[in-house]
Amino acid sequence: MAKKTLDELPMKGKRVLVRVDFNVPLDDSLNVTDDRRIRMALPTIRCAIDAGARVILMSHLGRPKGGPDPQFSLKPTAARLAELLERDVTFAPDCVGPEVEKLVTALTNGEVLVLENLRFHEGEEKNDPAFAASLRRLADIYVNDAFGTAHRKHASTYGVPALMPQGTRVIGFLIEKELKFLGEALNNPVRPFVAVLCGVKVSDKIAVIENLLAKVDRLLIGGAMAYVFMVARGQKVGKSKVEREVEKKDGTRKDIIAVARKLLERIEASKKEVLFPVDHVAAKAFAADTETEVQDPDIKDGWIGLDIGPETTELFREKLADAKTVVWNGPMGVFEMVAFADGSRAICETLAHVARQGTVVVGGGDTAAAVEKFGLAEQMTHISTGGGASLEFLEGKPFETIEILDDA
């Protein structure tokens, strides 16, 4: 998807409405505790400022219910953005309406306005035409730079650009980067191409596995989703967390173990090199100070698998050593606890070495948090800002919110 970027448009004096992803964590005092998503949007914001645009930023934060809620206000993100930009940033008390339109009209060239949480209005997630029209009135140019919500057809991501004239709907530099690295990994990888899929839910990654099987040279599967495949093979997993079924949209239940059995059949038929854990760090309880033990190949009754074991760690490191392209989505274990962080840390360190001569794309969400925790974020080629969005991209799904924008 080669799309036009905002630097290709004249912006001086124009109202540039940018959909950013400022959905960042806040502490009890409503201070931003992780500003990575704000920092990732800075190149796009600075480009518009330097071009003399009147910059209006819109985003959601969290999942507020039933209207405005102070704990989900974007005001703290506006304050943090002002610190990062080292300039004043105005904050609007709402995202639509006469008062907001007055603030937009009052902007001068190079000034920045952050709108209040889009999800304080139910029209955002419903892609309500009237709500989209209210946002569109604020813009001469529309920019989507929120990859984390690019898989959602909301008013701010689809309704607004649908109302904009051709030649005024572009992507920002963050989405450009996401499309470049994820797209090249999927469609034109330097080989060997290795995918590392972990995490808790197999249901989230079924289509990803199916799509990647045809593309990768190797597939490494870890985390709690490996226990689903163990059950499907008839192995013992003790009290480990296993996703056994999931509710479908029609209210019926899908048997995830049955799905895993079919996937194992497809994996075997593919003749691709797919590896699962051969040992596990198991614990008596889900706690930081509990009794632990390395167990293989099964997990004993009464024990919980919380990380890959040392033999698996070395096996996975060996299979990653010669990789030239790696996509990693999902931590190997409960990395937040020191006793169960070794697997994720070892894979992270290995990928830092791979990235020196190859391409390593790290999925968003918990995977990004793990890389940040181990202090290796700067050594990765690219860390995606979209957990669910990166998964859907890896599935090969089209993003209508990006397709609707102007082609390069």
Descriptive account of the structure:
The protein contains 14 helices and 17 strands. The chain folds into two domains: 171 residues, Rossmann fold, CATH 3.40.50.1260; 207 residues, Phosphoglycerate kinase, N-terminal domain (Rossmann fold). The strands form four sheets. Strands 3-4-2-1-5-6 form a six-stranded parallel sheet, sandwiched between helices. A six-stranded parallel sheet has the order 11-8-7-15-16-17, with helices on both faces. With 408 residues, the protein is an alpha/beta fold. Helix 1 packs across helix 2.
Short characterization:
With 408 residues, the chain is an alpha/beta fold.
Question: Characteristics of this structure?
Answer:
six-stranded parallel sheet, 16% strand, alpha/beta, Rossmann fold, 408 residues, 17 strands, 35% helix, 2 domains, elongated
